[in-house]
Amino acid sequence: MDKKASSVMQSGVQCNLGYLYMKKNDSTKALEFLNKGLPVLIEAKVAGIIPIVYMAYGEVYLNNNLYDRALGYFEKANNYYISSNDVINKAYSLYNLGITHLKLNNLTKSESYLISSLELYKSINFKDGLEKVNKSLFKLNNSKAKTTEALYYLELSQSYSDSIYKEKSARNISMLKAKMEFEEEKVNLNLQNNQEVAKQTKYIQWTSLGLACMIIISILFFQANKTEKRLNQELALQTTSLSEKQKELNTINKNQDKLFSIVGHDLRGPIVSLKQLLGLALENEEGIQHFYRFGPKLKKDVDHIHFTLDNLLNWGITQMKGEPIYPIKIDIKEKLLEIEELFREVLDKKSIVVNKTITNNLTVIMDANHFNIIFRNLISNAIKFTPHSGKIWLSCFEENDTIIMSVKDNGIGMSEKVTSRIFKSLEHYTTFGTDNERGTGLGLVLCKEMIEKNKGMLTVESELNKGSIFVVSIPTIASG
Length: 480
Prior knowledge:
The protein is of the alpha+beta class. It has three domains: 3-125, Tetratricopeptide repeat domain (Serine Threonine Protein Phosphatase 5, Tetratricopeptide repeat); 170-291, no CATH class; 322-479, Heat Shock Protein 90, CATH 3.30.565. The protein is built from 17 helices and seven strands. The chain has a five-stranded mixed β-sheet with strand order 2-4-5-7-6. It has a two-stranded antiparallel ribbon with strand order 1-3. The longest helix is centred in the middle third of the chain and has 70 residues, at 214-283. The protein is flat and about 85 Å long.
């Protein structure tokens, strides 16, 4: 390697160090290394690195509120990318120009650069960039008192943030599963090795003693054999106990991952939107009008949070060992009509007709709280996935010593792949309804667990675009 190439490589390393110090907010160190490396790169005309170094300079000055200096370096970087095919860095350069002009209160220029950056990020579906640009456009429109536009960009930013969080959660869960499987395999291998070593040691000991004295060996062998059986029995019991504890720990860890995923994604999103909407309403002079305008959305989000918290609480109770069941005689028709009335507002809003075929005076022996939770979730799901002017059928009858209750809809239905996943407690599977209603993927799992605790069974039949039917079967003998 010649001297010039070595000098260019060293300058590249110095600029990388400057970039890292910039990320650590150590502006002094960052500028020291950037100043050392940039002149050599400019002289060598290393076009691929120079604009990145300019952006690093710009971010150092931006972080220290030196906006004019930052703007100069961002413009230099952008000049390199005008005719470049490097979409990500080009979009990032435009984004930096946009937020710098926003800091300088040059709102028109800021909006122009941010919109250009947004279009480039859209062309490659780069979610991290889309989330940042939409958040900046929210701030820009908020400062211009354009409340409707601000809300639009805020919701887009939150949507990309939720998508990024969900993808990261899925990757983290996959890595955790792989790690647990590796640790379990490692434990099994260690156990096998220890058993083999123990067997070999025992064989050597007994062989040595046998050569010394056969009579003593016979006596010792008899005693050792007796002791070994006792120890093996104790070891077997301890191994069984340890295995059960390991299974419980694995279940707790997986349930905890699922709980954090639901709280972090399905509850965090509506609460953040609620906070931002309330903030806009209170900060704006016409805030009360905006509050009433977005009131239905706020109520929808709060209802979703309340319903989700109820399901989380009841699901948590079902996970506790020894949860008591209080079976009583329930008038099925009376209870189903009460539950239907809870959803009257949304049924009327979506113009959904509920047809009922319920045998009069038919009763079932179940835990009353479980009955309410089960059919609240099943009816809620039917409404969620049924389009406007759709139909729902509630049916109940007795057949072969079994009470059969069903909730049927003519909604969007499910594929076989989705149907096979909805009852798996270790998966967090959910989707949006026909009016973009949110879900947690927890309701059907909760229903299945509660029905089984009442000696029953939950089955489902579904076909895409033709609807679904969920059937709850409770034996009259078992429940009685």
